[in-house]
Amino acid sequence: MTQSFADQNVLVVGGAGFVGSNLVRLLLHQRPRRVTIVDNFLSSDPVNVPDDPIVRLVADSITSDRVLRELDEDVDYAYHLACFHGNQSSIHDPLMDHENNTLTSLKLFERLKEIKSLKKVVYSAAGCAVAAKTFDGATATTEDAPVSLFHDSPYSISKLIGEMYGNYYFSRYGLPFVRARFQNVYGPGEILGAGRWRGTPATVWRNVTPTFVWKSLHREALPVENGGVATRDFIFVEDLARGLIACALKGDPGEAYNLGSGVETSIRELAERINAATGNTTAIALAPARDWDRSGQRFAAIGKAHDKLGFLAQIGLEKGLQSTIGWTRENQRTILRCMMQHARFVPKVRIYA
After folding, report:
1. Main-chain phi, psi angles of 185, to 5 degrees
2. Between the CA atoms of 321, 322, 327 and 333, what dihedral angle is there, to the nearest 10 degrees?
3. DSSP per residue over 192-259, as a string?
4. pTM score
5. Element at 7 (helix H, strand E)
6. Which residues pair with 56 in a beta bridge?
7. Per-residue pLDDT tens over the stretch 289-303
């Protein structure tokens, strides 16, 4: 088995997204023969596609029969990172979540089973779908943790179904399927408002870190729900990209690996750290708990990824936030462009002085 992507043919479904584009840029350092990105830009923006002659962009959905039919027959590695972002959009439109989460996985795996050159297929699984539902104190979630049949969102359900379909194709057809269980990823490249309107303000205010960074830079009050007692495992996107590479080169088919920092951080602490880093003195705005969210406190066990893949997150939260804040300052025009395309749906989106 090769220990490098040099001269390899790599498929990245969702490669224009936040995580996918960071992965592609890291892959390019190893000079693969070709990188094919398939992305329909539902929740991403073309600015994130690296400008490199070995990168081929297919601007369409992986559910397209034509796109599937025209995939290279000599793909060495495939990453399935496409998803319907995220929980709140899936609650608003479960059918759209099904089309862009569940169906994408099934149709892709059905096609990939025919490609005999595949060394590994890496799937972006969701740590939140496996973590225990608790506000009473979290313990580290292991890869073999029991999975509940009761979930907070269609997104969580569909990410688990993707794991199940991948395991089926591994067991039935020998698809070399590896599950990379993402924790809460943050960092440069996550563009607020990227993509098309997906039914809720979460189209603009995506994940907690970029939302807090943007509002803090513009001296707004950070909205902290339920007293900020919820906890998450924050992993910097460059670390996650390294973990994805490790999953492809060293992961065992049929196995799952947590890609996280292993550090539990409360949302209140995150808000305070970001405000301190930006110099925002506006008081935090306490808000009610989200009525759909029962998965309040969680973080990942990281021993398996370290022991089996040699993966350990290297960038701590303080350094990672500084990098994210710097990137946000430098890319305000791009972020504003993406946010403003939804201004008629989200009146609070405005251009700052």
Report:
1. -85, 140
2. 90
3. TT-SS--SSGGGTS-SHHHHHHHHHHTTPPPEEEGGG--EE-EEEHHHHHHHHHHHHHHPPTT-EEEE
4. 0.96
5. none
6. 36
7. 888 788 789 999 999
